Amino acid sequence: MIGRLTKPLVQVVESAVSVVGIRTVEEPAHSSEQLTKQVQIRRYGPRIAAETVVSGDEISARSAGFRRLAGYIFGRNRNRTHVDMTAPVGQEIAMTAPVSSTSSSSGWVIRFYMPADSTMESLPVPDDDRVRLVPVPGESVAVLRFSGVASPAAVAARTAELQRELQAYGFETVGPPATWLYDPPWTLPFRRRNEIVVPIAESAATAGVSNMRAMDTPRA
Question: According to the model, what pLDDT value does residue 24 have?
Answer without folding.
Answer: 62
